[in-house]
Every structure is written in structure tokens, then in C-alpha cells.
Design goal:
- 2 copies of one chain form a homodimer.
- Chain A is an alpha+beta fold.
- The first copy, chain A, is built from 15 helices and 31 strands.
- In chain A, the strands form 7 sheets. In chain A, strands 4, 8, 9, 10, 11, 12, 13, 21 and 24 form a 9-stranded mixed β-sheet that branches.
- Chain A is globular and about 95 Å long.
- At the A-B interface, β2, β3, α2, β4 and β5 of A face β2, β3, α2, β4 and β5 of B.
- Chains A, B: This is Proline--tRNA ligase.
- Chains A, B: It is an enzyme of class 6 (ligase).
- Chains A, B: It catalyses: tRNA(Pro) + L-proline + ATP = L-prolyl-tRNA(Pro) + AMP + diphosphate.
């Protein structure tokens, strides 16, 4: 059916919506694809729904090709399964919780690991039933603290979430790669360039975890990659640990006065002034106090020692201490711990307690993996206005363990030996990871194996944010005049425009629309009778259908203009030739 | 793609699920179409999702044919628009309410009149934009007090809801009938017999309102119809009002002793014993005390006077007094109103106050429409153990108005003069109604008309419960062995079964599946290698695909059995003949 713009439920706007921060949000609203209903909650107009349906179709195709079967879970889920895995609490404020008229607790599901696990437990009991991969395309909910950026991070959003079930680790690997391959095909069809980066498996407790990132300077995620093929997001990057150094000959530590040097910069300047040798921030050990809030609500201070030329990376710290929440220690925290001499904290002090021995302060002390035995440091002496130098790791102090919280930098060596890494930014477009047996164990999903023994099932989880992907495609495909859809997801294949007052233009446009429709194209026909060519062209460019066919002045002599929305190219052609061209390039 | 049962995510159950009350619920769970997640909340397995998708496809086809355009609203909606129309409160306990991390109020939408109205207000401003009909197929929420009967009345359910927008009443009529016609086509394609009955427009404030009911003895709704073509649900049935009778000559009322006659039965027996003449319940006026709970929470007692041979019909009373809630008066209510002499209440008393005069009791008194001026009644005297006879309506008492709360009976005259009505039962499968200007007024949806004047838009609302329809089809199409789907919504077109240990059977079944697939059929192929024919046949009958093709013993000589699931007919045919037969009957 040809869609006539005169009857089509769409209105374009000249002004950007006030609440929109990013280009995709502005354009999708202005061009009449979506409308805001509440913060992070949108209604879909016919144009938007068409693009969404095309993305979903591609995903369904590739899921079927990968042997995944579609199911559908409710958004409204009871508390019990989420309680069993601890996520009812872990999700904190991100979870929309509610209760029914009888007072029973429910949630709006942010993801469905529990429900899928229980469904498979309900239906299956034998290794012969496996492998199984099931998925859904479904609306999910997260009560984001700052829902912004339109569909990029909504509070109601559509996800494709798939879950695989195997009874061996090899089986899980096979299921994982089947989904991973499907993702590669999906993003290729969507025209989305991607990098597959190692991601942190973290709180999910699994082993293998990778993100598909679209590399773009405006991305919210930072990742690293080496020329040799290593790629990881910063949370998953692991530091190459240097070899320990001998320290038998090392001189003893020396405490020295260092007035007014609470920062690394002032300390390094002071050292270069009063000590022998030349020092940089890398010679100092910076001790940062962090406050962890554990799931049970208790607050714990910890100190992390990292080379002075690096900072604590919030995201890496979050992963390192998960599921606890991490923040910088507050003045109140310091006030409660007089042993923490702000600006002069060290792992060791000639007069004070040794951090890392709980008996002394009760404060755990963690080290950056680079602080191996034998490395020598200038660091705080735990005495106001004093530092210490020649302090040797492994001799003068030890930590309670190593943590990966320091920033990653351009030039850091990749952990796989493939050379130095470079930092880049990207947007997450998909995530595949191996959950392992965490959910199956918590919910009792076991099957009988070949030997009649009950074994716990191992699972994978595979997500693509459908509405997020749509926004990303819009974010990447636009210009100052509007949206520029890739053909695979465009709401229409061809936008036919009749201009002027000449009946011949409308007649020709009508004929061409019918011909294209008969040839299998989705046609949007701008048949509005009293609208100026300028407005029509502006709308066509804003809406962003890849091909625009204009019947105007030349219509009487059978000529049309064929536009390429992306390149801006415009050709005058015989009408039949234009149709043939469109068919040929399909 | 041929779906292989060996890999298909389905398991059939031998036992009915404990919580299931109705046949559709039992069978949809047993045959592996759905699984319960919470009361009235279900997950969809691949089989169920296929049937649901087929129903949705038919609805989308017919919506497009009727010129309706698809949009999609969030389930999570802010409170404001529902507050503006009063429905935030009116819905009471039926509404799932929740708040976000900032404390803002949200609801899970039970229907979207407000949102559609506001969206049209946002986009449109001129009569030239109209008419418009937009719809969605979307998951809705109602916190039913007794979610039961599986999908027939779920708490999360899928609806097609359409809304029309016009600026004239004639336009609304046209939009209304376009949807009504589409519904007729949809139900015809779904194989669902229907009666279109007048429904109460009631609380929605509109004018025309009709329900599509499927007539069935097990239906939850009662409706009436006449041989002459009248049809209405009992809530919408209107009583034919008799002409007033002259009462100039009528004798004066007489109070008489009537000990131990608090019921109509005992009263009639007593009258026949002590009074002249022969009496029936129809000669008595029964006065029923009802308690209304108004939206603001106040409780009001009212008395309704109806002929003694009828009862108060709860549903008719609900409609008559909407939006107040109605229940029978409690002993506490009577205790608070000593003037109400239980069992002997009348409209009038020689000694007590006249009901209907607020000054006397403060209790409003309503009458059945049959209690016209001049009718004579035996009724309570408002004195314990006493009744009154020869009490004349319009002379001895008047009411505060007429209400349609009395039961409708077989033989009552249809209001359109088309003869006596008969009661029947049905299930609601669709509802079309004219909202009129209620929502547009509450939310300020106006457009400029031809004369440049702002006029309020008039709306219609048109709903089909997708998941409810699916359950109704299952409810109507089953036998003792399982489901029997109509071809238009069956999860597969053909169920191919290979039986026995003979490789030839599996090879032939495989070939036939591929052939049918190539011919455009959705094929489910039972390729399970070590499952007995009995189990396979049992599963095929339970799952209910309309055609079953069995390759068994005869396979080696090229013979198959073609089953008709509905009739039970089984034919032995050459394989090629069976395929040709299936293609021909399509």
C-alpha cells in the first residue's frame, strides 16, 4: 500500500524539542518518529514503528538462522525469582517495584535471566534436551537516575535478550559463538561498524564476556585496542604485571619533611628540590581513600595505592569492588579515622600503624598490580607534612591484595602481548556473555547427564537494545538537514514527491508510486496539494528516506528528479528510467 | 523453515495444571503454549507466540484496510493525563500504580484514551487533518480482584485498541462504522461467530456503544435478542414503559396486618389468604436498599422499588448508578437508619415519612420504569409486620426518578418493538464505542473548523483483546484429546509425524516436510527418533494443528495417512496425493 503523506499520522517540527540533548533525539522527535511521554519513556509514531519493525525483523531473521527460538515473558514479574538470585536487592533504585491489590511484590523486569532459567527448569530435565537458545524481543524497564539522550538510555526500552542453556562448558562456548556470529551478521545488515571488546564478566559471575562497541568519538564508553588485535573496554583491561625486583641491596626508607605537599605535583616539585636525583609522578605512590557501600548497607573505607602518574578510574573501581558501590571518601569519613592523614597517607609509617594490617587500623589496603615486590616509592608517611622515600614494596609494606582501579593510558601494553594499546570511544550496541552456572545454581536448574547424574546447567546471556540501536543508527546517520537512513532500516524505500500546481506532476507521481509499490517498494508519497516545494523538500530531507523521487515541472514531458539523500546527488531522468534505476540498485 | 519437534521448545503435560479452571487454560498449558508466571500473568512459549502472531496479523491487515495507522504507547505512563480525566481515581484497585526513584506517580496503563488524545493534540490542529484513526497492539494491565480463567481475564494482556478522531458527529459515525466493519471481517477470518449487541455507553460518557459477543452457553455475559433483530447486553436493555393508568376511581390505600411476611413469597401467600382476589408477585412492589459508594468515598443508601416478580440485577445496578459502586445494604446500614423497617419497607407509610422526600429520611427513592402513574401495588407500610394494598403510583407516592436495575426476563418486549426478547449467554470479543467529546474536553483537544472556529474533537474507541480472543478460540475449539485450531490461526499448517523404527518413514516424512515447506506451508515435523507412535499421536492431537500427515508402516511403499484433526477423518493416500490434497484445500 502506498502511504499518502496527506493522510499519514506525522507532523514535522521546525524547532528542536527542549528536553533533547543529542542529535538522534532531536531529529527523531522533529521528524515525527517518536514523542516523549515521560522522562525516558516514549510513544512511537508510525514512522518510528516502521524503523523499529525493520530492525526487529533483521534480528529475528538472524536469531532463527542461529537456531534460537522466540518466546515472550511478561514485563510484570513477581519478586520471588529475583529474590532467590539476590537481584531484587542488588538492583537498588534501578528497579521499578510495585505491589498488587493484595500487597504482593512485583517488579517491571529490567532483564529476565531468572524467568528463563525457571522456564527451562519447568520444561526440561535431560541433557538430550540441550543445547537450547531462546530469546524474546520485549519491553524492559530501568529507573535510570538521569534518563537522557532520548532512546539511547530510556527507562522503558525494547531489548532482544537471548539465553543459552548447555550442560558442558564446550557446549556453552558453541552456543556463545553462535550468538556472537549472529550479532556480527545483524550489525553488518544494520550497517553498524563494530569492535568486539573484552568486557568485565563481573557481578554476573561468568567467564567470557564481550561487548560489541560502535567506535565513535561521541561514544559514552571508553575502550582500548592494540594494533595486534587486542580490544577491551577499560573495565576489563588487565595490567601487565612487571617482574619483581631484587631489593637486598636497597637502602632503608627515609622519612623526610615535605611541608605543603598534599598533591602529587607539589610532592614531585619538592622532591626534585630537596632530594638527590630527578623524580616524576611515576616514582610516587598515591594512596586514595575510597568508601564502599556493601549490599547490606554497611560502609567500609579502603585505601588503594597506585602509581602517582595515574588516577582512580571510577568504572574500573566499580567493577573491582562490585557488588559494593564505590565513592570517594568524604570529610566525615576522614574525621572518623584520625589515623588517615589527608594528603600524607602512606602504606607505612615509622611512628604510626601499618596500613594493610587490619589489627592496626581496620582499613584494608589494596595495591595496583604494578606495585610488585622490590619496587621503590616516595609516598606519604602517615604524618602530617611528612613523606618517606626508598620505601620498598614487599620489604617495607604489603597490601591486602591487588586491584585494577588505576586509569588505563595510551601506550600501556596489551595483556596478550600484542603491543601498546590506544584509547578510543564507542557506543555499546550489543553484549554477549557467559553467565556460567550462577543462575542455574541459585534456581536449581539441573539435568541428567549421559551417566544419569544430575548436573547443573551452564548459561549464556546475549542482549541487543533494539530502541537503543535505532537511536544509534539515527545518531550516526544524519546531517544538518535531517536523518539519512541506511536502506536496511529506512521507514520507506522511496519518498515520492509531487510539487507545483500542475496536475501532470501529481498524476505522474501517482503512477510512479503505484509502479514502485507493485515492484515491492515501501513508498511514501507526498501528495499534499497546497504545500510548497520548499516545505515538501525540507520534510523529505528531515524524514530521511534514502531515495527521493520528485515529479515537478518536468512531469508534463515525463521527466523526474531522482535524489540520493545521503550523497545529495540529484539526477534528471525519464520517469521509466528512474524506476528502472531504483529496481536495479535494490 | 521446517520446525523439528526434537529441537522445538515445547513439552506437553499429561496433567491439567492445578490452578486452571477453564478448558482453554488447561489445554494451552498442557499443550505447551503458555506458562503461568504469576496470577493472571503468563509467559508465551513458541507455540503460543505463533498463534498470537497470526491473530495480530489478521487484525493489522484489517486495521490497514480500514485506514487505521499503527502507533505504540508505553505501558508505563505518568499520572497526569489520567488525573486530568479523573481515571487515576476512578479505576480504584484495578490500577497498578507505582512511583519512580524521585517519587513521581506512574501507572501501568489499562487503556490509553488520554495518551492518544494528547498525542493528536500535539500533532494536529485543523479539521483538514481529520478524520484520523490510530491504533496499537500493546500489553495492558488491570489488577483484577480474581484473575482466573487463564488468558480470558489476565492481569497482563494484549489489546488492540484503536481511537478515532473527528470534528463532526457524522464523521464519528463514519469512523465508528469503519471500525465496526473491520471487526466483522476480523471475526469472520478468525472463525468466531458473533452477535453485535447494544452496550451501555455509561461511564465513558459516549453515545453509541456496541459489543461483539460470541454466543455460547459458557459465556460470562448475558444478553438478550429478539427474533426481529434486536440485541443488547442486559446492562443496555431498556424497559418498554407502559402507558399511565387512570386512577380517579381507585380506592384508597389500606394498611393491613401481615405478620411474618418479610419476603415476597410469604407476602403473596398471606394476601391470597386474607384479601379478596388472587395475587402474584407481580402485584407487589419490592423495595430494595442499596448502598452506593461515591468516588469521593462517601456512602449513600438508596431504595429502589421494583415489581416483586423481579430482582435487582447487579450489573444493571452498577451501570445505573455509575460511577458509584453499588452493593446491598448491610445490617450496619439498617442499624443507622431506624426508619428502614427491614422486610416491610414501602414508599409510603401512614405513620412514617414518605421515602423520596429527602426532607423526611434523606434517602433517595428510585422506581422501576414499569411503576407508572396509576399502577396499584401491595407493598411495605414502613411499619414492622404491616403492609399496604391499593397503593397507587403518582397518587400515593412518587420517586426521585426511574432506574433500570430490575432483572430482564425471557419474554420482555424489545424496546424497538421487534417482539419479545430471549436471554442468551456470550463472551465479549470486541467493543466499539463512541466516546464523544469527554476526553477531548478534559484534555483540551480542539481543531479549527472550516470557519476558523475552534471546535472540540469527538472520539471513538475500539478494542479487541488479542490474548483473550486467543483463549476464546481455544475454549471453543477443543475436544477430549486436545486443541483443534481453525486454520487461520493454527501455529502450523501441517504436523508431519514419522513413526516406527523404519528409516523409510523418517526419510519420507523429511521429504514431505521439505515439499510442504517449499509450497509455503508452516510445517511442524515430529522427527523424534525414539518416541512411541502413541505418544506422538497424543502430542499431535493435544497441540491441535488442523492437518496431520503420518509416515509410518506404509512409508516404504510410498503411502501416508492424512488426518483431519477436527473431524477425526483419516485417509490412506499416496504421498504425492496427500501433498496435492493439502495444496488444493488451502
Amino acid at each position: 500500500m502506498v502511504t499518502r503523506l496527506s493522510k499519514f499520522f506525522v507532523r514535522t517540527l521546525r524547532e528542536d524539542p527542549a528536553e533533547a540533548e543529542v542529535q538522534s533525539h532531536k531529529l527523531l522527535v522533529r521528524a515525527g518518529y517518536i514523542r516523549r511521554q515521560a522522562a525516558g519513556v516514549f510513544a512511537w509514531l508510525p514512522l518510528g514503528l516502521r524503523v523499529k519493525a525493520k530492525i526487529e525483523r533483521i534480528i529475528r531473521d538472524e536469531m532463527a538462522a542461529a537456531g534460537a527460538q522466540e518466546v515472550h515473558f511478561p514485563a510484570l514479574m513477581p519478586r520471588d525469582p529475583y529474590q532467590a538470585t539476590g537481584r531484587w536487592d542488588e538492583y537498588g533504585d534501578l528497579l521499578f517495584r510495585l505491589h498488587d491489590r493484595k500487597g504482593a511484590d512485583y517488579l517491571l523486569a529490567p532483564t529476565h535471566e531468572e524467568a528463563f532459567t525457571l522456564l527451562v527448569k519447568d520444561l526440561y530435565s535431560s541433557y538430550k534436551d540441550l543445547p537450547l537458545t531462546i530469546y524474546q524481543i520485549q519491553d524492559k524497564y530501568r529507573d535510570e537516575a538521569r534518563p537522557r539522550a532520548g532512546l539511547l538510555r530510556g527507562r522503558e526500552f525494547t531489548m532482544k535478550d537471548a539465553y543459552s542453556f548447555d550442560y558442558t562448558d564446550e557446549g556453552l562456548d558453541a552456543s556463545y559463538f553462535a550468538q556472537r556470529d549472529a550479532y556480527e551478521r545483524i550489525f553488518a545488515r544494520l550497517g553498524l561498524e563494530y569492535v568486539i571488546v573484552k568486557a568485565d564478566a563481573g557481578a554476573m559471575g561468568g567467564s567470557r564476556s564481550e561487548e560489541f562497541l560502535h567506535p565513535t568519538a561521541v561514544g559514552e564508553d571508553t575502550f582500548v585496542r592494540s594494533a595486534g588485535g587486542y580490544a577491551a573496554n577499560v573495565e576489563a583491561f588487565t595490567t601487565v604485571v612487571p617482574s619483581p625486583l631484587p631489593f637486598d641491596e636497597a637502602p632503608a626508607p627515609v622519612v623526610f619533611d615535605s611541608p605543603n605537599t598534599p598533591t602529587i605535583e607539589t610532592l614531585v616539585a619538592h622532591c626534585n628540590a630537596v632530594l638527590d636525583g630527578e623524580y616524576t609522578a611515576a616514582d610516587t605512590l598515591k594512596n586514595v581513600v575510597l568508601a564502599l557501600t556493601h549490599l547490606d548497607g554497611t560502609r567500609e573505607l579502603v585505601v588503594v595505592g597506585i602509581p602517582g602518574d595515574r588516577d582512580v578510574d571510577d568504572k574500573r573501581a566499580e567493577v573491582a569492588f562490585a557488588p559494593a558501590e564505590v565513592e570517594a571518601a568524604t570529610p566525615e569519613d576522614f574525621a572518623k579515622h584520625p589515623l588517615l592523614t589527608k594528603g600524607y597517607i602512606g602504606p607505612w609509617s615509622a611512628t604510626g600503624p601499618v596500613l594493610g594490617e587490619e589489627s592496626a587500623t581496620g582499613i584494608r589496603y589494596f595495591l595496583d598490580p604494578r606495585v610488585v615486590d622490590g619496587t621503590r616509592w616516595i609516598t606519604g608517611a602517615n604524618i602530617d607534612q611528612k613523606h618517606v622515600h626508598s620505601l620498598v614494596a614487599g620489604r617495607d609494606f604489603v597490601g591486602d591484595g591487588f586491584v585494577e582501579v588505576a586509569t588505563v593510558r595510551d601506550g600501556d601494553p596489551a595483556p596478550d602481548g600484542s603491543g601498546p594499546v590506544h584509547l578510543a570511544r564507542g557506543m555499546e550496541i550489543g553484549h554477549v556473555f557467559q553467565l556460567g552456572r550462577k543462575y542455574a545454581e541459585a534456581l536449581g536448574l539441573k539435568v541428567l547427564d549421559e551417566n544419569g547424574k544430575l548436573v547443573t546447567v551452564t548459561m549464556g546471556s546475549y542482549g541487543i537494545g533494539v530502541t537503543r540501536i535505532l537511536a544509534i543508527i539515527a545518531e550516526l546517520n544524519n546531517d544538518e538537514r535531517g536523518l539519512v537512513w541506511p536502506a536496511s532500516v529506512a521507514p520507506f524505500d522511496v519518498h515520492v514527491v509531487a510539487t507545483g500546481k500542475d496536475a501532470a506532476a501529481f498524476e505522474l507521481a501517482e503512477q510512479l508510486s503505484a509502479q514502485l509499490e507493485a515492484a515491492g517498494f515501501d513508498v511514501l508519497y507526498d501528495d499534499r496539494p497546497k504545500v510548497s516545494p520548499g516545505v515538501k523538500f525540507g520534510d523529505a530531507e528531515l524524514i530521511g528516506v534514502p531515495r527521493v523521487l520528485v515529479a515537478g515541472r518536468g512531469a508534463a514531458s515525463g521527466e523526474v528528479e531522482l535524489w540520493n539523500r545521503r550523497t545529495g546527488e540529484r539526477e534528471t531522468l525519464r520517469a521509466a528510467e528512474a524506476v528502472a534505476r531504483l529496481i536495479a540498485e535494490r
